[in-house]
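Justification of resources, computational component.

The compute hours requested in this renewal are based largely on the per-chain cost of generating structure records like the one below. Each record pairs the submitted sequence with a full structure-token output. That output is archived, and it is also reused by downstream analysis tasks.
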Amino acid sequence: MCNQKAYTLIEVSIALLILNTVVLLWLYLFNALNHFDAKIVERENRIGLIQLRRMIALGKDIKLNFDQLCMNFRDDEVCFYETNYRLIQTPGTQIYLLEVEDIEFEEKEDVFILTYYQEEIFYEYVIGYR
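The structure output for this chain reads:
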């Protein structure tokens, strides 16, 4: 009788097949999670724009600076500006947009416009009316 302590070719092939399947599933899951994370930022920014539009619609005495928007909201002075790649509201630090840069506020004809770059893409949104 021969006492074999080695693996057969079939056992090695099955082990490699299982390992390859696990690695492929892990890579697919990793790519799906990265894509899902990017979509979260898009959704949060859309919600932030809706909230910003509502605040501007309810605000009074709106003053635009190149990179800042200030107004009277419920008898408080509220300002919006970009810091650390986010559009925030002060007082407080409520965040409206994430991962943005070069934010500009401007008024064209009776319309307030917000422009910014996100991942080297230029965005321009109407955020309110005078």
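The mean pLDDT is 89. Strands lie at 60-64, 68-73, 76-83, 86-90, 94-98, 101-108, 111-118, 121-129.
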